Amino acid sequence: MDRIKITGGAPLHGVIPISGAKNAALPLMIASLLSEDVLTLTNVPRLADVALLARILGNHGLDVTIAGKRPGELELTGQTVRLDARSIVDTTAPYELVSRMRASFWVLGPLLARMGHARVSLPGGCAIGTRPVDFLLMAMERLGAKIEIENGYAVAEAKNGLKGAEIDFPKVTVGGTHVALMAATLAEGTTVIHNAAREPEIVDVADCLIKMGAKIKGAGTSTIEISGVSRLQGAHHRVISDRIEAGTYAMCVAMAGGDVMLEGAQPELFENALDVLREAGAEIAATNEGIRVRRNGHGIDPVAVTTEPFPGFPTDLQAQLMGLMTKAKGKSRITETIFENRFMHVQELARLGAHIHLDGQTAIVEGVSTLKGAPVMATDLRASVSLVIAGLAAQGDTVVNRVYHLDRGFESLERKLAACGAQIERISGEG
Ligand SMILES: CC(=O)N[C@H]1[C@@H](OP(=O)(O)OP(=O)(O)OC[C@H]2O[C@@H](n3ccc(=O)[nH]c3=O)[C@H](O)[C@@H]2O)O[C@H](CO)[C@@H](O)[C@@H]1O
Ligand SMILES: C=C(OP(=O)(O)O)C(=O)O
Fold first, then answer.
1. Does 252 participate in catalysis according to the annotation?
2. In the sheet where 12-17 sits, what is the strand order?
3. Both 276 and 207 in a single domain?
4. Do residues 101 and 119 share a domain?
5. Is the distance from CB of 203 to CB of 311 less than 8 angstroms?
6. 104 lines ligand 1 (CB under 6 A)
7. How many domains in the chain?
8. Are residues 228 and 191 both part of a single domain?
9. Arithmetic mean of pLDDT, 49-64
10. From ligand 1's centre to the CA of 180, what distance in Å?
11. Nearest bound ligand to the CA of residue 131
12. What range defines the domain where residue 153 resides?
């Protein structure tokens, strides 16, 4: 099992290319199931989740080819993924695969819409929370599907096809919005999604579906209207830049100090997080190339932040912000409202000397002047990188174990940081 070793104290200077967004690439790949033609995606990040989803889609009969960047290349070229869904041979998504990646449950919507049936393993919970799928199932039932839970599988039928309907989500759900949006493109008549998620990744998927011939209005607002069409064609689409990866590296620079250009980062995708970083004392400037982040001399100021659906502060940057605030000049308050158990990093940050007290869903972080390196354990994707952020400013060596969590969502992390002067290396093998 790989580990990452960081020797803290080096400031960061240089350029970090920002990859395509994992959370857009995954639903875009799944959307290919809707088309009786070829969908070609560019700027797809080289990540474990992308490779696993390619396998899952291959299992349904898609011909998936991935070309482009070689491992270790840091240029902004991304990978090109060609998905040919002309023939779907299997509408079952098995437990062994779905349990390894939650987003693969989203194949339910496109399979039902195109094939009239689907049998998809329930994904189960994960480290950050129980993460039920009741809203996704409700949305498919609203579109006319009959769903039974059998032996851990959602078995869904829509013998006469899906029918447009009003879908009102009781709570904002990214996955629910993706699934409803994708399924409604091939449903007969009009679907209106109320209380839809407004995340940029929803807009990216809608943009691609429109290129494929779908009729969609309002993506990016909380009401999305879809007029169903009988078939979707192929398309070429470039995946948007990863706002969570960009926000993470911005926090690395805020923690370590220095001056870094986040090449290809799009500030309009995470204004709220950039404002929080400014409040914390980082200098942020949008340029034609991306976002320049600097912190020289000025210490880190504490902040009070609550996670919210877009356009609020993203839960996917909560752990990283907490890593940064461990060295702030005072007391920060970080409240998590999206997932009930997304504080697994607290105990690991404490191993580096952080002072964090939990009060229900709020973490009170008392900044300390010195963190000290230690062996720590990654518990989930974003928690793992919060430990890297803390390690960048800790005295001595921090070794992050269970790096496979990090590899789900951060392409070439150690290379990107090392190219800017961080003392960081991957240690391959057992241990
Ligand atoms: C691959 C991907 O894009 N993952 C993102 C997606 O996850 P995901 O789509 O799973 O997250 P949701 O937006 O659906 O979850 C939001 C909240 O709704 C609850 N809920 C959701 C569905 C449901 O059927 N029932 C229910 O109760 C969840 O438990 C959670 O409390 O959005 C999250 C919130 O921005 C991000 O942290 C994840 O990185
Ligand atoms: C929680 C995340 O991903 P997933 O929904 O795939 O678990 C994430 O990207 O931070």
1. no
2. 12-17, 258-263, 290-295, 283-286
3. no
4. yes
5. no
6. no
7. 2
8. yes
9. 96
10. 14
11. 1
12. 24-238
